[in-house]
């Protein structure tokens, strides 16, 4: 029992590191930049002007091609890895101000965030090394190989359902303003609080809609044995663009993703870390 308490105390001390907090808050700024670039790519896709991937991978490659881009990518990668470490602690010992199902939900969400932040950080490093392949092509090829194996189509379909469920959950999370429980709203002015709430609602709803659509396309790919539809977020954006009123809807979605990017900047200041 004493070993458990000591381990818990050590973990809590590490989680409360000032350096980890500073790097994490810097990471939110980098995460916001990635989403602003993602929104810009989505807007270009809406009007048929982008050959780059419409996802975070494409956003990182776009940044890497700019002056000082690789330096910024390294800084963003460090921040993202710090965010992953922080969320790992949150998954194990965090969210203590919540109880019951809400605490369990946030800890599960923290596990998902660890995976996302590590993947984005690693992608940023690969872009710096000029080793980042097209993620959409890789996902399509992986899905094609998996669907060719016994039971593979079921696994692909299940992955699509999970992604769609995550997207729907993200929309609900945003519209119900549950993200506010992780913010230090007491330190905000009324105007800042209102702005943060609106940006968070729009941002989570837009991101969730894209993820849900991507998940549904993966399910369709498994059902119809069509790996070309299993290309993740990029396929979701381009499929939406090709529908009636698609460019307008995609432009609105891009604005929502941009809203999330700005919301990340506010999280850098007001997120509970």
From TrEMBL:
Any matching Pfam family: DUF1206
Transmembrane feature ranges: 28-47, 71-92, 104-125, 154-175, 204-225, 245-266
DUF1206 domain boundaries: 26-93, 111-176, 202-271
Keywords: Membrane, Transmembrane, Transmembrane helix
Domain of life: Bacteria
The UniProt record lists the keyword Lipid metabolism: no
Name under which the protein is recorded: DUF1206 domain-containing protein
Origin species: Micromonospora fulviviridis
């Amino acid at each position: 029992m004493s070993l458990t308490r000591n381990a818990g105390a050590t973990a809590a001390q590490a989680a409360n590191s000032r350096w980890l907090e500073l790097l994490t808050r810097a990471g939110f700024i980098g995460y916001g930049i990635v989403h602003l670039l993602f929104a810009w790519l989505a807007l270009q896709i809406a009007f048929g002007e982008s050959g780059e991937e419409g996802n975070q991978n494409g956003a990182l490659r776009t940044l890497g091609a700019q002056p000082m881009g690789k330096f910024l990518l390294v800084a963003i990668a460090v921040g993202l890895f710090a965010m992953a470490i922080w969320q790992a602690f949150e998954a194990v010992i965090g969210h203590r101000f919540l109880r019951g199902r809400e605490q369990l939900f946030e800890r599960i969400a923290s596990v998902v965030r660890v995976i996302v932040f590590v993947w984005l950080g690693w992608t940023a490093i690969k872009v710096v090394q000029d080793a980042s392949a097209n993620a959409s092509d890789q996902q399509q090829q992986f899905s094609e190989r998996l669907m060719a194996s016994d039971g593979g189509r079921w696994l692909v379909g299940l992955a699509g359902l999970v992604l769609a469920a995550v997207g729907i959950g993200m929309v609900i999370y945003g519209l119900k303003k549950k993200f506010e429980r992780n913010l230090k709203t007491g330190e905000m002015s009324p105007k800042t609080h209102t702005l943060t709430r609106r940006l968070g609602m729009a941002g989570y709803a837009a991101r969730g809609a894209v993820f849900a659509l991507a998940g549904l396309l993966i399910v369709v790919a498994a059902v119809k044995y069509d790996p070309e539809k299993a290309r993740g977020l990029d396929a979701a954006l381009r499929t939406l663009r090709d529908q009636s009123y698609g460019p307008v809807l995609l432009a609105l979605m891009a604005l929502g993703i941009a809203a999330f990017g700005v919301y990340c900047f506010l999280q850098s200041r007001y997120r509970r870390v």
